[in-house]
Amino acid sequence: MKIHLFLLAILPFMICCTKPEKIDLLELKLDEPLVRVMHFNDSLFVGVETVEYPFCLFAEVEKSQKYTFEGIDLSKQKIMFQINSEKLKTDSISRFGGAHIDLKLVKNENELVSTLRNFDAEDKIYGVRIAIEDPSLKSEILKKIETKYGKGTKNPNTDNGLYWNVKKENKYIFFAPDYDRLIILNSTDLSKTCYWDIFNGLLDFGGCDNEKYMKELVKNSTKPEDVKNKPVVKIDKNWNLNNLVTGKSTEDDFLKSPTSKNFERIEEINGSSGEINQIVYQDEYHDFSFYFAANPKSPESKKTNSIKCYSLNDLKKVEISFENGLTAGMKFEDALKLLDKKTIAKTIKNEGELSFANYIIIKNGLYEVSLVFDENLLFSGMFVK
Predict the structure, then answer these.
(1) Which 3 state secondary structure label does DSSP give 370?
(2) Helices in 201-250 by DSSP H: which ranges?
(3) Is the pLDDT of residue 215 over 80?
């Protein structure tokens, strides 16, 4: 009986002293189920982050005690696992801007399964990214990679970037110290001739067909001519859209208007603090978005969250008319002449650059209007903030 009591007494201490198993990120095959390489005890955020790489899903943890790199402790680093998602192979999310972030806190396996299903994503990883800012840590990690795989190939797109094509392990390794990133990918289902991301640029492994490669990355994009049920958009002389006033109209006003049909509400979360940065309503199919400044005290109060900007990334996907006489597809020089004549109490901000620019920025009271022109200098999109 005494022995049993003794064992019961020391059992909690035995459990407390048991250290969680560490995962060496360089040893992963990068085909492991996501649930095997993370802990729900960590703050796990899953979603889209186009500042990293726009055509896959991310699972992100920060300051986890779980990860090492060839014996190097990574408890102070942000770790991002990449997950294949067919739904995200579209250029629409990348056109929301270089820092479009839609990450949601996932607390348990049921929430994880639901999130993966929502994005038509696989349940396994195919890559990992490590954020590294400390120069000494970058140097340590580079030495570990070179010891195991030898000297890398110089990345011609960056000052200090290197990469390794480790064919025997089906791995690509991209060391991008200029942008504080180490990226390791399972190359099995990736292109064998091309690679692109924001931090490394386009790399040619030999025989890269850039146009074909980029088309494959965005193979699920909708062609403008095939878009159906185009929203009707009317822009008044003050650049307000369908009577919604930038800086004044609220989230509640937007939801009560016919314009809000087919929009999805997304909360953009700060990965470090968990606070809501902003609220976005997006109609991904029509490349149409509204951005709302969230009330920091009560972001769910729709009567106090106000429109801070809106974007129409492809005017061919909406039925649009302008009170000032602009038309979708108008030539750059014709738009400039029209604005010179009809823009009242407003200024063209980038006037000195117009000889070589493909955009017009107009100062309109407290906000700016950006008119974007395509490669043929035809009016193709706009952003009001």
Answers:
(1) strand
(2) 210-217
(3) yes
| Number of Cβ atoms within 10 Å of the Cβ of 191 | 16
Q: Kindly tell me the burial class for residue 174, based on how many C-beta atoms sit within 10 Å of its own C-beta (0-12, 13-18, 19 or more).
A: buried
Structure tokens that stand for 134 in this block: 């400390």
Domain ranges across the chain: 23-218, 232-384
Which of the 8 DSSP states describes residue 88?
A: G
349 vs 239: CA distance, rounded Å: 16
d(CA 362, CA 106) in angstroms, rounded, equals 41
Instruction: Residue 243: name the closest of 252, 234, 251 by CA.
Output: 234
Closest-CA residue to 171 (of 28, 17, 276, 16): 28
Phi-psi category of residue 239: left, alpha or beta, with phi > 0 → left and psi -120 to 50 → alpha: left
Q: 120-133: per-residue pLDDT in tens?
A: 999 999 999 999 99
- Comparing C-alpha atoms, which of 173, 178, 186 is closest to residue 145? 173
Beta carbons of 44 and 106 less than 8 angstroms apart: yes
pTM over the 0.90 mark? no
The residue among 9, 358, 26, 2 whose CA lies nearest residue 166 is 26
Contact (Cβ atoms closer than 8 angstroms) between residue 132 and residue 72 = no
Q: Decide: residue 376, CB within 10 A, 0-12 exposed, 13-18 middle, 19+ buried.
A: exposed
- φ/ψ of 370, rounded to 5, equals -110, 120
C-alpha–C-alpha distance, residues 235 and 252, integer Å: 20
Structure tokens, 215: 């088309």
- Round to the nearest angstrom and report the end-to-end CA distance of the chain: 74
pLDDT at 190: 96
Q: How far apart are CA 361 and CA 354, in angstroms?
A: 10
User: If pLDDT is split at 50, 70 and 90, which confidence band does 86 have?
Assistant: confident
**What is the identity of the amino acid at 19?**
K
Cα angle 207, 211, 213; round to 5: 65
